[in-house]
From TrEMBL:
Protein name per the record: MMS19 nucleotide excision repair protein
Compartment(s) of residence: Cytoplasm, Cytoskeleton, Spindle; Nucleus
Species annotation: Sinocyclocheilus grahami (Dianchi golden-line fish)
MMS19 N-terminal domain ranges (all copies): 3-168
Signal peptide: none
Keyword Cytoplasm in record: yes
Length: 231
C-alpha cells in the first residue's frame, strides 16, 4: 500500500508538470479524487509528496469548486505536525520539513481562512509548546496571504489567544512567536488600509491590543506593589 500510494503521488506530480491543462480541465473532480487518495495517509514520505501535490493545486490555480473544505480537512488533520523520526531512519525526513510543507498548503489560499483561523485558536489552547509555536508561526504566515476581509471576524479571538501567549507564557520561543504573529496581523491590516476602505478594522484591532496591554500593565503593577508592601 505504501509503494502504491507513493506511485500515485509521483504520477500526479509528473502529470502536473506535463499535462496541467488537461488536469485543470477535470475541474473539481480532480480535487475530489486527490482528497480521496490522501485520506488516511500516515507515512511521512508519502505525506511530503501529498503536500507537494496540494501546494501545486493551490498555487497553480486549480479550481477547488465545492471541495474547498474537504481539501482543507484532509490536510489540516495533520496540524500541528507531531513527528519524531526513528534514530536509524534512512530517509532522514525531519519534523521541520513536514511542518513547513504543510504550512505552505494551509496558508497558501485565503479560501481556507474560515477553517484555518478557528483551528489555530483551538490549537493555541494546547499544553504542548511546539504546537503553540507552530500555530503562531502559521498565523504569521497567514498575514502574507490574507486581507482584512478574511481576518476581521476572528480578530478578537486571535488577539485573546496571542495576548495570553505573550503575557502569560514562561517560554521565550512562544513569546517570540506570539509577537511575530501580532506584527504580521498588524502589517496585513495596514496593507489593507492602503488598498481598500478597511481603516475601521485596523482601528478596532489596535484598540483591542491597547486595552489588553493596559489591563496587563495595571495588573502587573498591582502585583508588584503588593509584593513590595508584603516585604
Amino acid at each position: 500500500m505504501l509503494a502504491e500510494r507513493s506511485c500515485v503521488y509521483n504520477i500526479l506530480i509528473s502529470l502536473m508538470e506535463s499535462k496541467e491543462e488537461e488536469l485543470k480541465g477535470l475541474g473539481a473532480d480532480f480535487i475530489f479524487g486527490f482528497v480521496q487518495s490522501v485520506d488516511g495517509e500516515r507515512d511521512p514520505r508519502n505525506l511530503l509528496l501529498a503536500f507537494q501535490v496540494a501546494r501545486n493545486i493551490i498555487h497553480r490555480g486549480y479550481d477547488l469548486g465545492k471541495f474547498v473544505e474537504e481539501l482543507f480537512e484532509v490536510m489540516s488533520c495533520y496540524f500541528p505536525i507531531d513527528f519524531s523520526p526513528p534514530p536509524s531512519d534512512p530517509h532522514r525526513i525531519t519534523q521541520e520539513e513536514l511542518v513547513l510543507s504543510l504550512r505552505a498548503v494551509l496558508t497558501g489560499t485565503s479560501q481556507f481562512a474560515a477553517f484555518l483561523l478557528p483551528l489555530i485558536i483551538e490549537k493555541l489552547d494546547s499544553d504542548i509548546q511546539s504546537a503553540k509555536v507552530d500555530s503562531l508561526q502559521t498565523l504569521a504566515a497567514c498575514g502574507l496571504t490574507y486581507s482584512h476581509k478574511e481576518l476581521a471576524e476572528f480578530l478578537p479571538g486571535l488577539w485573546s489567544s496571542i495576548r495570553r501567549e505573550v503575557f502569560q507564557t514562561a517560554s521565550e520561543r512562544v513569546e517570540s512567536a506570539g509577537l511575530s504573529a501580532l506584527s504580521a496581523l498588524v502589517s496585513c491590516l495596514s496593507r489593507s488600509v492602503l488598498s481598500s476602505d478597511s481603516e475601521d478594522v485596523l482601528q478596532v484591532f489596535l484598540s483591542l491590543v491597547l486595552k489588553g496591554t493596559c489591563k496587563w500593565w495595571i495588573q502587573a503593577s498591582k502585583d508588584v506593589l503588593y509584593v513590595v508592601i508584603w516585604i
